[in-house]
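Example (one chain per record):
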Amino acid sequence: MATSILMTGVPSSAALWIDSNDPDQVDLRKSVGLDALKKELAVTGVLDGIRFVPFAAPVPILFQFAKCDHFSIESMRAYADAATGAKQTLWYPTGHALNDPQALTDRAKWLEQKIGLRGAVKAEGTLSGRFYCVGAKPGTDETFPGFFRSCGYADAPTPARLIRYKTCRRSGSPSTNRG
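Predicted structure:
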């Protein structure tokens, strides 16, 4: 393998199910119960990415993380820090879908540098110019307040601040994911 790109990778199931302050994860803990989740983690935790990423060297890794993801920035940093070989870590002002167009450009540049893939950066510019608010309820422009609270906002941001939370889709349809 010549290179690897890990996009919004969950370092461990515990980082998502136990440690996350994301409203959906809090609801999951309440509905399923912490004991049940811990039992599940005792079985599935052996598959956590953070256990394997130290063995990726000498393969260079590009980590792309969302600042408003379902798990903590500290857990994402620990994931990247666990990689022992060549690596680069980039952060984007978006949610777990990592749908900031800059992330696509950065991946294309990485692939050009690491494996000689030509034309990827130029191709990125051909995507639709229609941008929509990430966090919008399906079929509407109304936002999910919980998404923005998990990003540190007291309420949904003003339209001027929403420009940072956008998605670029070929279909031209609004984003239907929460992050």
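Caption: The chain has eight helices and five strands.
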